[in-house]
From TrEMBL:
The lineage of its organism: Bacteria, Candidatus Doudnaibacteriota. Residues 1-64 are annotated as: Disordered. GO terms for molecular function: structural constituent of ribosome. This is 50S ribosomal protein L35. The keyword Chaperone does not apply.
């Protein structure tokens, strides 16, 4: 059986916390920030958990 490869693009965007949750950053943070209201900007500052029902992440990150 061959060794699976980690998808490098996914490994740069998703990380595992100490409790075992997979986290990612919100999109749309870099530019056109003047158009977004304060609620949207503050919501995008927080890190977001990856859905547990997402089976694709397990395939892309086999050793995490």
């Amino acid at each position: 059986m061959y060794k699976q490869k980690t998808h490098k693009g996914t490994s740069k965007r998703i990380w595992k916390t100490g409790s075992g949750k997979l986290m990612h950053r919100h999109a749309a943070r870099s530019h056109h920030r003047g158009r977004k209201n304060v609620t949207q900007s503050l919501r995008r500052k927080q890190d977001n958990a990856v859905a547990q029902s997402n089976p694709r992440v397990g395939e892309l990150l086999p050793y995490q």
